[in-house]
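user: Here is a favour to ask of a fellow structure person. I have my own habits and do not want them to colour yours. Could you put it straight underneath, so I can go through it closely?

assistant:
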Amino acid sequence: MKRFAVPGLHFAYWGVYFLLLVLFELAGLHTMHFTFLGFWHAVFFSPATIFTGLSGIVAFYIFYFVLFSRLLQPRRLMLLGLTAIGVSLGSALLVFLIMSRLLFPWLKYGFTWDTGREVLVLGFIAFVNGVLALVMRGFITFYREIQLKEYLRRQNAELELALIKSQISPHFLFNTLNNIDVLIEKDAARASGYLNKLSDILRFMLYETKTDRIPVGEELVYIGKYIELQKIRTAHPEYIQFTIEGESDQLMVEPLLFLPFIENAFKHAGKKEEGAIKIRFKLDREKITFDCENRYDPKGPALPEANGGLGNGIIRRRLQLLYPGRHTLEINAGHEVYKATLTLTNHAN
């Protein structure tokens, strides 16, 4: 919603409201007995116009700012109805008493049946204004939520695209294909198996990632194949420790969420000694805990910053969009050890 749309909506509402009040006043006036100034004063400054207008304004904005967020949104409807009646009558009585003492003391209102009926009428008008305030606030909130969801959808699509582009590493593909090519002459069956794994990875990245969420089991299978392909490049495959604890049944996750951390681990790992890279998933009913740790050479390529870097920046923004208030991400770049820990909560299917 544009910047001035909401104030303009309020302005239009009160313009129509006071126009109706003026028309009601005009219907009861005999203009021939008034000068122009007298006519202006009789229409716009009559007790009925002021009492009705002010009580409507008070009730409208109490409903708009207080009752909508405190009672309507939590759907406490019974309490909302009782409170609405009390606020309407209270605002009418308050405006009636204050204005009758300040602006129209000569009217000398007393607590009579006529006064009670007038307060009830003002309360009813205030109630109608309050209901219209809830309708207006609901419409504005609904429209803003639609805009927000559309914005988040576009942002997520852009982040997904940027993330996927950053993950299809040409070096990884070229190195894997070259290693498979060399392996074909030595062990054709094994090379065929690796080629199938690479094909499965590309198919997963091109097709499976189009859905919003996938079972964690599928993501783990994909990660396992990626790790197997990385092992081709070294004669010491034991330098990678990949463990999964718990069951992945009924757990769903957005695709390609963990791979950037794993790619960084392989990219920045130092000596390929045992335990140089440790990847662990711990799964329980409603929580996923992911740890990715690697040793690195301080003199090697610069590590992604703990709170920055393109990859980490995209990941953090994506997590904020997809898991608001339901994730924690800790990145620690200590002496020769880089560790990322991601926890996702309340993500059962």
